[in-house]
Structures are given as C-alpha cells and as structure tokens.
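Supplementary Methods, section 5.1.

A reviewer requested that the exact input to the structure prediction be made available. We therefore reproduce it here, unchanged from the version used in the analyses.
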Amino acid sequence: MAVAPDTAADLVYQIFDLQRAVRCIATANVRGQDTGVALQGVLRFVGEGEARATTLAEKLGVSTPVLSRHITELEEQGFVVRRQDPDDGRAQLVALTASGAEKLRHIEERRTAVLQDYLRDWSEEDAGSTAQTLQKLTESLKKSARAKTAGTTTTP
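The structure derived from this sequence is encoded token-by-token as follows.
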C-alpha cells in the first residue's frame, strides 16, 4: 500500500516542523553550557562506542573536517580521546573519557526532564505510540538512504 502524494507532502512538512521545534528547544537548553548542540550530537554518537571519525561523520551527516573540529574541541574539554586504529595506522578511533560519559549522562538526563515537562499533558500511551511511530519512520528512511547509497533500487 503506497502513501498518497498529499500525505507524503504533509509528512515532510510535519517532519521539518518537528526539526525546527526540536532545534529551538535544544538551542534554548544549551545556553550557558560548555557544549553546544553540535558537540552534544557528537558526544551522543561517540557514546555508542569507540568508532572511526569517518564513521561518526557519516552517522552525523557532516564532513570529516567539520567532525574533526568538533572532536578537537571535545578532546580539549577532556570528553573524548583519540587513538590510532590498530587495524589501519592512518585512521583514528574516538572514544568517550569517563568525564565524557558523565557529561553525556547529564545531557541526556536534562533532555529527558525538559521533554517530560513539555509533554506533561500527554498520556504515557500517546508518548509510547509516538516513539514507536518515529522509530518506524526513522528505520524506513535509513533503509531507503542505505539502498540509494549502495545504488540499489526496488520496483513496486
């Protein structure tokens, strides 16, 4: 069953509207902190486990030089460390330090508390259902992007 063009257009609009709202909330909540929204995003992905900088750049959708600047800043703050990749001496692996893990925990706790406050008139069922729908949407988009990147196409 295909999604109608009007429905797809509305979904695109709603996704961009959600992105703007999340960006506004995130920006408001990082004022006065030592890590901005971009650095927090890098911390989150590094927090998933040690990885090559190129892999992190792909996940974040940024160029390697941009990510390198972010990693340098996080390294100067003591939140991440770099080491040479034992499988490829030309590459570097990036990992959280203990301080970085604590910072990430604090950021996620704060984000959770802020969202709980903003959604105080939502039911647990509404929030859970929305989370499941967003996860399904995200996975569908990731699969489509991976297929396109790999050069594969599917026909109906």
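The longest helix spans residues 124-150. These observations are discussed further in the main text.
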